Amino acid sequence: MIVNPNTTASMTRTVLEGARSAAGPATRLVGSTAASGVDSVESNTDEVYGALAVLDQVRAGEAAGVDGYVVACFGDTGLAAAREAARGPVVGMTEAALFTAALLAARFSVVTLPPRTREQSRRVLRETGLAHRATVRAIEEPVAEVHDGSLHLLGAVAAEARAALDADAAEAIVLGCAGLADLVGPLTELLNVPVVEGVAAAVTMTEGLLAQNLSTSRAATYAPPERLGPVPA
Amino acid sequence: MIVNPNTTASMTRTVLEGARSAAGPATRLVGSTAASGVDSVESNTDEVYGALAVLDQVRAGEAAGVDGYVVACFGDTGLAAAREAARGPVVGMTEAALFTAALLAARFSVVTLPPRTREQSRRVLRETGLAHRATVRAIEEPVAEVHDGSLHLLGAVAAEARAALDADAAEAIVLGCAGLADLVGPLTELLNVPVVEGVAAAVTMTEGLLAQNLSTSRAATYAPPERLGPVPA
Amino acid sequence: MIVNPNTTASMTRTVLEGARSAAGPATRLVGSTAASGVDSVESNTDEVYGALAVLDQVRAGEAAGVDGYVVACFGDTGLAAAREAARGPVVGMTEAALFTAALLAARFSVVTLPPRTREQSRRVLRETGLAHRATVRAIEEPVAEVHDGSLHLLGAVAAEARAALDADAAEAIVLGCAGLADLVGPLTELLNVPVVEGVAAAVTMTEGLLAQNLSTSRAATYAPPERLGPVPA
Amino acid sequence: MIVNPNTTASMTRTVLEGARSAAGPATRLVGSTAASGVDSVESNTDEVYGALAVLDQVRAGEAAGVDGYVVACFGDTGLAAAREAARGPVVGMTEAALFTAALLAARFSVVTLPPRTREQSRRVLRETGLAHRATVRAIEEPVAEVHDGSLHLLGAVAAEARAALDADAAEAIVLGCAGLADLVGPLTELLNVPVVEGVAAAVTMTEGLLAQNLSTSRAATYAPPERLGPVPA
Amino acid sequence: MIVNPNTTASMTRTVLEGARSAAGPATRLVGSTAASGVDSVESNTDEVYGALAVLDQVRAGEAAGVDGYVVACFGDTGLAAAREAARGPVVGMTEAALFTAALLAARFSVVTLPPRTREQSRRVLRETGLAHRATVRAIEEPVAEVHDGSLHLLGAVAAEARAALDADAAEAIVLGCAGLADLVGPLTELLNVPVVEGVAAAVTMTEGLLAQNLSTSRAATYAPPERLGPVPA
Amino acid sequence: MIVNPNTTASMTRTVLEGARSAAGPATRLVGSTAASGVDSVESNTDEVYGALAVLDQVRAGEAAGVDGYVVACFGDTGLAAAREAARGPVVGMTEAALFTAALLAARFSVVTLPPRTREQSRRVLRETGLAHRATVRAIEEPVAEVHDGSLHLLGAVAAEARAALDADAAEAIVLGCAGLADLVGPLTELLNVPVVEGVAAAVTMTEGLLAQNLSTSRAATYAPPERLGPVPA
């Protein structure tokens, strides 16, 4: 299941479409849109509602027998809680994108949007430890701009990516937002370096974990939670 | 305002009482209990509900004209969103405790509970950069155990703290949970090193920020959010 | 192609067998044994010959139209050169194992063998940046011991893994040697945490990169080399 | 007591004045000027004499019953020795400024002077661990320039601070020198981000430690010294 | 013995000449050229052949009673294996250059060539831990350009070095390639900061280790290898 | 010149004797004892007086035409100021010992004394960046114990060093105090790993810098100071 933490169904469709091209033939991908929350996730406030939506969606997925999950929001909103809720593996698009870029290039750059979300990228870089191999850049566009495709952002993203190749010695580009899958092709052609789209990366990593019969450790950090949610105060 | 992300009012009272001893005479402390959510915050799932509760409480605080906030939960649940919601400064008890310990000792150790929450401490250590000066230890007790005082945990905490002094070369102890203020005195006496309680530390740091007329930067990461919350899907 | 940097064909068979269980149905796995070099890779000296063998094997693979490669030796011997030689992606079992463990657990431990190879694990931890989430342990057995299966090492590996769970707060175990695939099942049962086998992990990551049409960046570090090998002095 | 490590009494007055605005009503601030040493602290040589002066001043403070100390020199000259000499807490303006900035912004920049002192800032960044969230910049002015106020430096500091906001993604500015308190207001207005003055920050942190009855750990690093000073050779 | 991992004898002569000026009067320097391999080491592929050549040369040196070795290739190709093969100490020109620069300057910059080799410098910076004090820059010239002297590169290297002093706050320059010894003088004059040449640095460090009767630890990582090289497959 | 920051002439003699065995035949070593200050350097307070004494001694050395200096105190007391005062290079015994150990072993451990000085070792590990390859241990003995030789400490040091080899995977030992040169031989025999004595290491590194005509960068951090010392207040 591709979990979109925001309520914009068109974005789920866009993301799902992009994910399908990377998924294996035996994989049945299901898109899920937040039933309630925010229509776009940019701020830390958005992330609070996004995390709640992710948790609800994963629980619904569990009831429906979903095998594995991808959190389709740069910053991996709600990922840790989702791991506690799911029997199967849960992969964030950000961590997947960073690990993928690290398999392809000595150094790389994240191009995200808008600038206020750079800290979300840095947070995952801290968690994964890849900060020494990456820089974070941003274009001045709201996430809402990419709900129905992102080709109109090609120029802005390409300009920032070129700056990363030149000034940061980056050798690959990570697209720092869900819904940018349609940029992969044209950007690869323009830049001639690998362009990593995190949802596709996360889908293949989730397939890989399932193929290895691996799921989240229950030893401590992601052990099943004692409480499932709100109780009367 | 001391923001307790869980719904247990007795814990708010305990925490508030501990905080008062450190607060200045001109400071009016208000305790706030989550109106809904979970009665204890330990898991990543709990943190999702805790963050939502923190955000709601800070908004209520804003309506009531609160000047500054302390997030009273080890792990600083909801802190980033709270910063976006509040006009005034917001300080997490974890970051405040770590910075305070760093002012007192070359190395220190966090003694938290239960073991599954160690990752929350490590997360704040990564954010603050103090991991090179600290270790994280835990006792096997649920947070629920400390809702009405924690003196019955003195033996377990003291044993783990002693191990930190001996094996980790720690020179101070950070109490890794709200509601442990009554342990500060006896533990200090037993161990003869500084024992830092994060809520008290955060209260004084919030007072300090207010005295300097400082509040959260609106430049990017904590700029006012465009969306305030759930919209119909 | 699963590239075994040593000359021991039985080890290639063992490794290939383990890898098949994780590979997708459409993937055709080919094992490759070093035509010359050393019968086991443990020392830094062994790695010199192992890297040469990896390069030769990848070149043969290129001639045969291989799509992607897995370097099946803990330490990822010869990986960087292999990336220059291959049109398609090349994944090391070590980096793949570490990234996989990071998707499953907040902290983990590598159990490798023999102790002299711990530095090879640490080197990949430095490159991947995951040192802050991992420890490295070793049992006192030569790699030669695992050429035809490793079940006789279960006790020793389990003991060291248990020490990692207890003393290092590890929540998953990475097997630090190729040829240990038959330990995954019994060890998982004994320890009740995820046990990651790097070759299987690397196979699924290579499949994933291929599914995304991604290959090594040619921007700088892994650009095609000007020289292909020995010239008369 | 605000400890000025240099011999320039006018600077002590300037610093003390700036500090008063942040101090609580119950706090009695005392300024102290080095009785001997150097009239400005910039070089490593200056720091040797500055440290000696700090130690002497703290001892005089102890004799006079001072409760807590602030070292008012960017670089925190003599701080470690002062901690051994004082019964109460001792806070450096640099560490206090960095911790304060970290409570307000995801990233920040130190603007210090002159360029040769950047390493002093980096040293405290290494100790506090905040190097991953900060950059260090400098203007080409001697410290002597700020002994009687610093408004004439507003243009130079603002230019460098703006460069930090733009090029380093800084979200707050730390003033990297004592005696710049009069810049806080105009700079905040110009830049619209928090501007942190370390002496004010350190005064409130010292008040906070006192309110918590916390002082330096005597466990090892800051245990009372066996020797109090020069003995005949 | 100065070990040149490539097959270009003129480069060995150039390097040896540069080394002599730093060596002590009692030191007998011997140059060694790779008997087979590649005529220049730039790519990761080159490093595979270079490492093999280094190992062969060190073994020949052992047979001839050589006391200590310098690996004369930026990136320290084959260093770890050489340490296993030699009774005496082995020093890489890169690690020696970095340690030397660290004794002279708070921050420094490596100017290497061509750009694709920057990762080799970064790898040694990771191993030595000096990444926090250094930047890596490169000029667009192949290593082949320096086989018979490098004065024609003075302009390009000086321009990049000046950029390092200005933009990176570097205070010393490390020449990132063997064979640049003749640049040390003119560059020092132009830049007025220390210019470190790694082969000279490594020669004096090897002399120093010999004077202390120190050689590589045999405890684990560099213990004598069980296998000496290729065996029939 | 071997600069002993304390006033104990017998320690200078012991240290000088140990240094001679490593120095080259053309090197004329001169020992210097602090004319005033403290008779042993352990605490941060001692370091203040020690730094002052180092600065005075280096100035006397400059007047006498000394070519280079070794600071013979673990923690490298006064090193930065000494670099500003000296025309020639200045090497600290701690940095020299750490770099030397890094040339010999993948990991190593410092065995220092007494425990309160461990932070001095950690400070230099932070500066050199070698913390990821080292641990710091201490025996419970005052520095005064080693003023006339240290063979009586062999048992205690050996026990701690063995613990480092076993528990920390150390492969070499750094002696964490001046005056322990007579332990090198017996300890090497007992442990069978390299034992590094910092004064000897620093002497050979200073010789090496002089042989390369290298001295401290004057670019910024260590530029000549404007002020030479105390002025009337």
Automatic annotation (TrEMBL), chains A, B, C, D, E, F:
InterPro entries in UniProt: Asp/Glu/hydantoin_racemase, Hydantoin_racemase-like, Iso_Racemase_Enz_sf
GO molecular function: amino-acid racemase activity
Pfam families xrefs: Asp_Glu_race (PF01177)
The family this protein is said to belong to: Belongs to the HyuE racemase family.
UniProt cross-references to PANTHER family, sorted A to Z: PROTEIN DCG1
Name used for this protein in its record: Hydantoin racemase
Source organism: Pseudofrankia asymbiotica
